[in-house]
Specification:
Layout: H1 13-21, E1 33-40, E2 50-57, E3 62-68, E4 71-73, E5 76-77, E6 82-87, E7 96-99, E8 110-114, E9 117-121, E10 130-132, E11 137-139, E12 153-157, E13 160-165, E14 168-171, E15 174-177, E16 184-191, E17 194-201, E18 207-214, E19 228-231, E20 239-245, E21 248-253, E22 258-261, E23 266-270, E24 279-286, E25 289-295, E26 300-303, E27 308-311, E28 327-334, E29 337-343, E30 347-352, E31 357-362, H2 379-389, E32 401-408, E33 411-417, H3 433-436, E34 442-446, E35 450-454, E36 462-469, E37 472-477, E38 480-486, E39 497-502, E40 513-520
Antiparallel strand pairs: 1-36, 1-40, 2-3, 2-39, 3-6, 4-5, 4-24, 6-35, 7-34, 8-9, 9-10, 10-11, 12-13, 13-14, 14-15, 16-17, 17-18, 18-19, 20-21, 21-22, 22-23, 24-25, 25-26, 26-27, 28-29, 29-30, 30-31, 32-33, 33-34, 36-37, 37-38
């Protein structure tokens, strides 16, 4: 998969190299590199915004970049307006890890960024949404815990907030889609000016349909009479993922039905195959493709706009564990690299595209020790328990998930989970306090040189400026500071910018209009 990046100009190399070499000693806080553009988002119809710019060195390695990630992890859509700005030195550095306090006592967490804030919740037990304030969690009423269910959520859309819950949708607190007259709507996704969702009616005469109905901010109601749908073959099919590429919307059901909406109608790329598992849990736009996290291969799949194909070895299998029944459940872009969280051993992998190399970042679990004698953590313990008690506990119930990845300020938030938000069974003696405590946690992983800054939507051109200073990253919008992240000045040693590309790169091609582009030091 090629990035399609073509340099459009050279930086004044000699001047920039001198600046970077002196960065550690300089007390001058003027930017060493500043990239500025007038950005016109256009009408917000749920589209992805893509790459702002990338700076490469003389070996064509990306060393500085900025863009808007488009990520969907197990029914959670990450913030489209969280502009990532990063500097990417060579060499591997272990992230600094911090365990955040529990947001609730459960064994599952969904995690999401929105407007520069970090949210966590679960769809079982205590369903209260909580927001991290930097020192503690506070309850947030953005979703009603009495009605919250799997697939419910919220997203910034234009100048308002889109909230979908309990089979209904609101925009800025006004109901735009009521409950279905029969059956129920669920698992909503807004893109390309269409509200997409699944519509299911169980029982006699039951059905499941994937739907897309026109609506855009400013309209009082979703135009349900203009809905386009495709009927699925299994009643009760449900999605874990949505994504979009090139103006088309893609979804995959838990039975593997893969459908694409092109703006006029649906086309089905794959129907369920009996006795064959095929589930997609995550989607991330990466250069000019859409990557999909799959079960049971544990690999990423690539949707190129025409077909979905497996990327074998993306990511590889951690040494010492079985290579079957694996699941690439979560993805994220962080400090210019691709990250993937893999079930059942909660492996966190990083891909360096310039080196075409995967590296294992680690696991947020310490128990049990990895083994290839069985497929899942505690599988043998559960087998023995079932035999001794004539029970039928599911053998992979206490497998280990990285169920969510989210950017927040300078960090990558890593959420852990068991298979689902079930209750602890005291008769399962392998679930010691030490073991149980590792489920349902949020870790903060931090590498120097990353910033996620919330950008405000405005319906007119807005000036966005990304500054690389000797000891920090800064993002400004129309002159107002939107975020900054500090680092050790030695981070910049050896970096030699040579070329800049606008509108193409890691986050996919931009859908924005970029005008009055400027980079300083000036281009030759």
């Amino acid at each position: 998969m090629k990035g399609g990046v073509q340099p459009v100009g050279l930086l004044c190399l000699s001047a920039v190299c001198v600046l970077f070499a002196a960065a550690a000693l300089s007390q001058d806080q003027k930017p060493l590199l500043a990239a500025t553009a007038s950005v016109e988002f256009g009408e917000d119809l749920g589209q992805n915004f893509g790459t702002l710019f990338e700076v490469r060195d003389g070996r064509s390695r990306t060393i500085v970049g900025a863009g808007f990630p488009a990520v969907f992890n197990t029914c959670v859509r990450l913030d489209r307006y969280a502009l990532q700005f990063y500097v990417r030195p060579e060499g591997d550095v272990a992230p600094v890890k911090e365990l955040l306090p529990r947001s609730n006592t459960g064994v599952h967490q969904s995690v999401q960024d929105c407007d520069g804030r970090l949210f966590a919740w679960t769809y079982g037990g205590d369903k209260t949404v909580r927001c991290w304030e930097g020192a503690q969690w506070r309850e947030d009423p953005i979703l009603d815990p009495q009605r919250a269910g799997f697939g419910d959520g919220f997203m910034r859309l234009g100048t308002g907030l889109l909230v979908y819950q309990d089979g209904q949708v609101w925009y800025d607190q006004a109901l735009i889609l009521p409950k279905a007259a029969q059956g129920a709507y669920s698992c909503f996704y807004y893109a390309q000016g269409r509200l997409c969702f699944y519509h299911t009616k169980p029982g006699d005469g039951g059905f499941t349909r994937i739907c897309a109905a026109p609506w855009k901010p400013g309209q009082t109601q979703v135009q349900i009479e203009q809905l386009k749908s495709v009927a699925l073959r299994k009643v009760g099919e449900t999605p874990f993922v949505w994504g979009q590429l090139g103006g088309e919307v893609l979804t995959v059901s838990n039975w593997g039905s893969t459908a694409v909406f092109d703006g006029a109608d649906w086309r089905v790329l794959r129907w369920p195959v009996e006795n064959t598992s095929y589930q997609i849990y995550s989607a991330v736009n990466y250069y000019d493709g859409l990557l999909l996290g799959q079960y049971p291969t544990g690999n990423l799949m690539l949707f190129d706009g025409i077909q979905v194909k497996q990327l074998e070895g993306w990511p590889p299998v951690m040494p010492g564990v079985a290579g079957y029944a694996r699941e690439a459940q979560s993805t994220m872009l962080y400090r210019g690299d691709l990250y993937v969280g893999v079930w059942p051993w909660a492996e966190l992998w990083r891909y360096d595209r310039d080196r075409s190399e995967w590296s294992l970042v680690g696991r947020p679990f310490t128990l049990p020790p990895p083994t290839d004698k069985s497929g899942h953590p505690f599988e043998e313990d559960i087998r023995l328990y079932n035999q001794a008690h004539n029970a039928n506990v599911v053998i992979n119930l206490w497998g280990q998930r990285i169920c969510g990845l989210a950017p927040w300020r300078d960090s990558l938030i890593v959420a852990t989970s068991a298979k689902g938000p079930m209750e602890r069974d005291p008769s399962l003696t392998f679930l010691t306090d030490e073991v149980y405590e590792q489920y349902g946690r949020l870790w903060r992983y931090t590498l120097p040189g990353h910033l996620s800054a919330p950008i405000r939507y405005v319906p007119r051109p807005t000036r966005i400026r990304c500054e690389l200073r000797p000891d920090r990253l800064r993002v400004l919008q129309d002159g107002a500071l939107r975020g900054e992240a500090t680092f050790d000045p030695h981070l910049l040693e050896g970096l030699k910018p040579a070329a800049i590309t606008w509108g193409q790169g890691l986050y996919g091609p931009t859908t924005c209009r970029l005008k009055r582009k400027d980079v300083s030091p000036a281009l030759d």
